[in-house]
């Protein structure tokens, strides 16, 4: 499990911990056991199980159904694994994903952006369409 005070670690309402980070930043010393990578092109092989979601910077994911499945897998794995969610800078796409994962964990969709900004990063979820994506996320199958 992650240490609650470790940089970028978000505590979800269930108590599960998920680390968000920007891949352009220096890699933390503690390695994840699973990674969810939100990038416009495939990430390198990090050496641990991972899922790549095609998601261009400042936009929305290319395949919303697959993205929702990836969020659900990240939440399931966070029960007993160190899960990392990351994009280039660690704010927009990562914040949007963390907000959607928080919705899956019980945070109302209308409050999820504020929750992630309060507990992860004050500038998480950068664009109006990312905010809308989170607000409508709970209504997706």
From TrEMBL:
It holds the Pfam family PTP-SAK. PROSITE patterns: TYR_PHOSPHATASE_2 (PS50056). The keyword Hydrolase applies. The keyword Hydrolase applies. Keywords: Hydrolase. InterPro entries: Prot-tyrosine_phosphatase-like, PTP, PTP-SAK, Tyr_Pase_dom. Residues 69-119 form the Tyrosine specific protein phosphatases domain. PANTHER family: TYROSINE SPECIFIC PROTEIN PHOSPHATASE AND DUAL SPECIFICITY PROTEIN PHOSPHATASE. This is Protein-tyrosine phosphatase family protein. It comes from Dactylosporangium darangshiense. The lineage of its organism: Bacteria, Bacillati, Actinomycetota, Actinomycetes, Micromonosporales.
């Amino acid at each position: 499990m992650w240490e609650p005070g470790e940089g970028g670690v978000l505590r979800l309402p269930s108590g599960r911990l998920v680390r968000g980070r920007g891949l352009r930043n220096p890699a933390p010393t503690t390695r994840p056991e699973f990674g969810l990578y939100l990038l416009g092109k495939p990430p390198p092989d990090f050496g641990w199980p991972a899922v790549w979601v095609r998601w261009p910077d400042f936009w929305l994911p290319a395949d919303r159904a697959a993205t929702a499945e990836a969020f659900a897998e990240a939440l399931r794995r966070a029960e007993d694994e160190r899960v990392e969610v990351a994009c280039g800078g660690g704010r927009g796409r990562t914040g949007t994903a963390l907000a959607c994962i928080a919705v899956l964990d019980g945070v109302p969709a209308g409050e999820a952006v504020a929750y992630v900004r309060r507990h992860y990063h004050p500038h998480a979820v950068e664009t109006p369409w990312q905010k809308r994506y989170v607000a409508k996320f709970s209504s997706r199958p």
